[in-house]
Amino acid sequence: MSGYIYYPGCSLKGNSRSYEESILPVFKEVGLPLQELDDWNCCGATAYFSVDDTMAAAICGRNLSLAEKTGKDIVAPCAGCFLTLKKSNAFLTSRQPKSDKILRALKSAGCEYHGSVKVKHPLEILIKDIGREAIKSKIRRPLSGLKVACYYGCQLVRPYTDFDDPDYPTTLDSLMEAAGATAVDYVAKTRCCGGSLTGTIEEVGLRLNYILLKEAKRKGADCVVTICPLCQFNLEITQGKMVKKYKDDVRMPVLYFSQLLGLALGIDKADLGFSRSIVPLKPLWEKIGNGGAR
Amino acid sequence: MEIQRKVKYEEELDPNFLAEIKHLSGSENIDGCIQCGTCSSSCPMSIYMDYPPRKIIAMVKNGFRDEALRSFTIWLCPSCYACQVRCPSQIKITDVMYALKRKAIETNVFPSRFAIPVLDREMSRLIAKYGRNSELWLILRLYLKSRHFLTMIKMAPLGLKLMKTGRMSLRRESIKNKKQMKALLNALKEET
Ligand code: SF4
Ligand code: SF4
Question: Pick from A166, A197, A275: which is nearest to B78 by CB?
């Protein structure tokens, strides 16, 4: 397959809109404008795999089939979608009786899949296809003086990812440094944020997120940089309760890596979804100027 | 004080459980567990669990069906794969957790208002019908089904903030080709 087709998934059209709003201009800026996959369906996330794994793989198969027809590989910015599509892709092409059955069902529903699509994350494409140096040469407003805690979470680096380390990945750190920021040594970078537990068993979710922010604060970070909608959401919405419960002010902005990278690439601040932040971004602007607002 | 019987007699164990979970999880090597505990020490949730992952694997291996399926552990696991990538015996522990969840949902052995399985089921239903998830609709269904009305009210200010920043909408999302989704799910049923 040559080129990429963009799979947004439900989050990037809903609560993590700012991820879409920033990743699209960033890809355009580096010379890889993305087109959206027509009539994509939800990947099913972890929920569908907990209920019915055959159906879960089948609905992913529909997306893979739609992408295959365009002749392009999938780029999925949401870490959850990325893992789910990748996992299903590996399963559907594993030639087992169980997976062959799903392929037959896909065919009879008019979405035949031959197994030629690859599923990639934007981080992987930026680092591997475009390259750190090429990106560095395009930086127009380096994020000098900004200290970032690069948070990868679980689903991007485990268990299938081949482009980075599952415990202590470094690609995002390297990208942020290319953009002029300083990446702090963030040991919690792949510790789980609890996923949907913040909505279902709040006490547990709150504590997990507190550990993550506390560690970022301890290392002197000005903000957390994420690659996953659910991580971003959890880390942002739990901050108020956290301050109350632990009597510890660990509040800080939580942004998508594409928002900061876009800023460094010289894209207008107003076009990168910063206004959707619930946590005030003032400390950030104090650190790096007004973000180059024209 | 009454002394409670803690031992389990062999006839109370389910000899088929291991084979069933092996098949469901796609992890055929569960018996290769050496009980090293790497999974439990890697697990960010183990302090909240009734049985840490190492024990769950031992329970599956030895046929403790009821205990494993009724455990709180399986619902606490958000599939972070920390255990799975570190297991020296390459056991797919996360996939075993998924298999146990499916079995528990299938056999209905969890509190019906317990939020986590309700969330999983409601989301799957939404997707099967519309092809897409709508965050607000999902949350409403979750709180209605699990009868967490108080939580719903407590969540309202957050919902408003999300709406104000354009991050949540009242629209129900849907794919165009809902017919195809239906055909696919029907074709799958026919294959099984
Ligand atoms: S890490 Fe693997 S081998 Fe060790 S106790 Fe856990 S499942 Fe068993
Ligand atoms: S995948 Fe589940 S059991 Fe394994 S470490 Fe993560 S939370 Fe624990």
Answer: A197
